[in-house]
Specification:
Elements: H1 3-10, H2 12-34, E1 43-45, H3 47-51, H4 59-71, E2 75-78, E3 86-90
Helix pairs in contact: 1-2, 2-4
């Protein structure tokens, strides 16, 4: 877990900026991912493990939220495949 990253994401000004760009579910996704990121390294995480954090009932819902974060430049995502999860990197 990156306490420094979580602290930065939850700082009031940053929180307001992120929610304004990607909504509360996008913010929840970044917090969930921030708990796994270690430094500036990409890490793998399955869609199933993230869906509960962002209140997405389907993979399509998660993909929509994730796409917003990528479009706004808050997240880098490399697509996985059925046998390997996608890779994430928070860019804030």
């Amino acid at each position: 877990m990156s306490d420094k990253l979580i602290k930065r994401l939850t700082e009031p000004t940053m929180h307001k900026y992120i929610v304004g760009k990607v909504g509360v579910n996008g913010f929840a996704l970044l917090i969930a991912l921030g708990r796994h990121q270690n430094g500036n390294n990409h890490f793998e995480l399955s869609n199933d493990s993230l869906m509960d954090f962002v209140k997405a009932n389907t993979s399509a819902g998660l993909i929509k939220i994730r796409s917003k974060c990528v479009k706004e430049g808050l997240l880098v995502y490399s697509t996985g495949n059925p046998n390997k999860p996608g890779k994430y990197l928070i860019t804030i």
